[in-house]
Design brief:
alpha/beta, 8-stranded parallel β-sheet, 284 residues, 13 strands, 5-stranded mixed β-sheet
């Protein structure tokens, strides 16, 4: 391990700068915090689908003294990953959390463009103007749990590498393709050309999600709570779908709405596949 003691050390200053989007973009780096999150990155390190380019790891004295050496430091050193040790107070000065666990990893950004991606069959989720970090992270986590084909982040959304977004994904950002596109309209056009049905979520959509056919390749567009899906995309969608609400609430949280729609699509796909298997067995 390499010992750091000064707040003016270039590595310390670099980590601190990564809390801001400008610093991340300038250096092409971002960081993740927490023992579980860093362990997840180590587990995925070198995976073909999500190349985890871990530049280095930083740990606090308390973390190393409480078992962190065997769980994270030693595996990093065994793989040739540089590890810096910091005093507790110095670590707190670079952390983005109120009560840091004492471990973070700095990684290289990997932005994959939607237009260059080979999309697999299934459910895609297009994010249109999602600016709340917690919502974006939770949608990514839900898409991972549901086995979605990918998430598409457009330029109007909060930065994917925002530490709050990353924490909210609980490591799911490493498990499925997160693709980037300049605009939602362009994302819709690309997905349609690649055979996906475009379904935009709208409170006054003409089709209930329980009546819509979501069993094929679908790209679900989720808008922000404040503005919803943009008008241009609404006009160019194949279907405007709504979540029936019989109570008095005016709207749903964007992440909650996304989860309901995603899992209705999963339910329909599972039912369709089950019927197809039954027909195959009976020779119908």
């Amino acid at each position: 391990m390499i010992r750091l003691t000064s707040s003016q050390n270039p590595v310390v200053k670099e980590i601190r700068s990564l809390r801001n989007k400008s610093g991340r973009n300038e250096r092409g780096l971002y960081f993740i915090e927490g023992a579980r999150f860093v362990s997840e990155a180590l587990n995925e390190y070198g995976a073909a689908a999500v190349i985890r380019d871990i530049k280095y790891v930083a740990v606090s004295d308390s973390f190393v003294g409480s078992g962190g050496y065997e769980s994270i430091v030693k595996p990093c050193l065994d793989r040739g990953i540089k590890v810096y040790s910091l005093t507790d107070s110095l670590f707190e000065s670079v952390s983005d959390t109120m009560n840091p666990q004492g471990v973070l990893a700095v990684l290289g950004m990997k932005k994959e463009s939607l237009k260059d991606a080979a999309l697999r069959d299934g459910i895609l989720v297009i994010l249109d103007g999602i600016r709340d970090p917690g919502n974006m992270g939770t949608i990514i986590r839900t898409a991972d749990a549901a086995g979605c084909a990918g998430i598409i982040v457009t330029d109007g959304c909060v930065d994917l590498y925002n530490p709050k977004v990353l924490r909210s994904t609980m490591g799911s950002v490493f498990h499925l393709p997160v693709l980037h596109c300049r605009s939602t309209a362009e994302a819709v056009d690309i997905c349609r050309r690649k055979g996906f049905l475009i379904c935009a979520s709208h409170m006054e959509g003409s089709v209930s999600i329980y009546d819509a056919d979501l069993s094929g390749n679908v790209a679900v567009v989720i808008g922000s709570e404040a503005e919803g899906v943009c008008d241009e995309v609404l006009r160019n969608s194949d279907m405007l779908i709504r979540i029936p609400m019989t109570g008095r609430a005016e709207s749903l949280n964007a992440a909650v709405a996304a989860a309901i729609i995603i899992y209705e699509a999963v339910r329909q796909k599972s039912y369709t596949e089950m019927k197809e298997r039954a027909m195959f067995k009976t020779g119908v």
